[in-house]
Structure of Pentatricopeptide repeat-containing protein At4g21065-like:
Amino acid sequence: MAFAMEISTMGQAMQLHARVLKSGSENQTHAQNLSKLFTFSALSPSGDLTYARHILTTLQTPNSYYYNTMIRAYSDSPDPTRSISLFLTMHCREETVIPGPDKFTYPFVLKACSKLRYAQLGKQIHGLILKSGLMSDRYVNNALIHMYSGCVDSSLALKVFDEMSDRDVVSWTSMIDGFVDNDRPIEAIGLFEQMMNNGVDPNEATLVSVLRACADTGALSTGQKVHNFVKERNLSTKANVGTALIDMYAKCGCIESAKELFKETMDKDVYAWTAMVSGLASYGLSGEAMEHFEQMKSCNVKPDERTMTAVLSACRNAGWIGKGLYHLRSMKKYKLRPTIQHYGCIVDTFVRAGQLEEAEQFIRKMPIDPDVVLWRTMLWGCKIHGDVERSERLVKDVELLKMDSHDCGSYVLLGNVYAALGNWKEKAKMREFMNQRGLVKTPGSSRIEIDGLVHEFTAGDSRHVEAENIYAKLDEIEQNVRREGYDPKISEVLLEIDDDEKASQLLNHSEKLAVSFGLIKTNPGTVIRVVKNLRSCEDCHSFMKLISKLYQREIIIRDRIRYHHFRGGECSCGDRW
């Protein structure tokens, strides 16, 4: 008996299943209908994985399509471990009716390994792929690149990529995306340029990935080239590409270009609105950020968790404690549950305002457990506001140390608190504690783009080919700013060394080296843009204000928290960061 039914709900799928079972026949139509309802149950957003698995287990001789589809469905589910379990069933084949893995199986189970960050299992599956002779399959290789990148091993991903004889745009995009996700954006940009030189046309996913890399490094000129390519191919109407462009311009310090692009975007989704609100908030334009948020709601676009993080960041950067608390409470209206990032914005707002008691009480009354970052924010507040008693009490609070024994930032900050208190013995103990556990402090680094190339500096860096000229320029700058009243804030250097050495340490901070290089390599009047991975210190902030005045340059520095637009001796942050 032949019958056909379009399936759009599980109810219809179950009706079809009942008809299939009732017919009892084993003809081609029976097989097609069974395959249709299984595929719907497994892969449709309105499907049912439990029902799909039930169908699989009732099949007498299931072929690889059923197993591969089920593995694929599990890899996309909240519990990807079931994908791996089913793959192992195929691999072990304790029952002869179970098919073995094929070239369609491996990409889906590798996706599960990537989501779970099961690097060791991923390597073992890689070995099985080698034994099965599938390393020439492009689809499998692309999945391996994605898996290794997701498991934070971009070096192995690159090895797979380099050994591929047949690459397509997905191969290039997977590797570029892997570099970006593993904090190697400079290499991502280089690979994108190599891809273009090889005559491979990027797709939307490629463009979004390389724009992320440009945003991370502040590579404005590369981002502009990508924008020109987007316009030539008429891709700016694509929502994901448009949003990536808005985000890139905002993060490269070109907030006006970001606003212009946002205006030109026709169908603004929550991601476009969030990119704009976040960019304005980071730039210190908190009022405009809130105006855009209100416009977003009036357009019936529902905010998501990232939108609310951007809104609370705007409140933090403006010092709006009351507004911040209001918007935190308002998340219930949108059926959003505040996360640690949202609570962190409120804590940071209290801390910046010097309201340390309120901040501490807020943390202790939170409905979720605080993480180590919140307590570090408290300790940072104690340090900058000179609350010695509170810092000593928090230092002794063992819950801080218990939270994450592998988090070097906490130990560095605790050591700095001891140093600020003049307790060098305890600071030395903290350093020894870190050494015993193999913990290494994240070095401060700053990036600047010159003529399309991104240059990266760390504190005291001497590796750059023009290091001698950079330091000579920096000495010249220091002499000039000292005449204008610059006095190194040696209290920022929490080391047991003399004052001259402390001043020298401050002078060699990474953003000062980057700006010195920028002054050497760019024409007078050119805006200098720098991206820093950590929060700027007070000394560098004062230094940059004086440079902007003396050298008549606009300097835009994006640190871990926000933008600082220095112009004529002033900063856009209003000395609040």
Notes: The chain is about 65% helix and 5% strand. The mean pLDDT is 89. Strands lie at 445-450, 453-458, 528-532, 555-558, 563-567, 570-571. The first helix runs from residue 10 to 23.
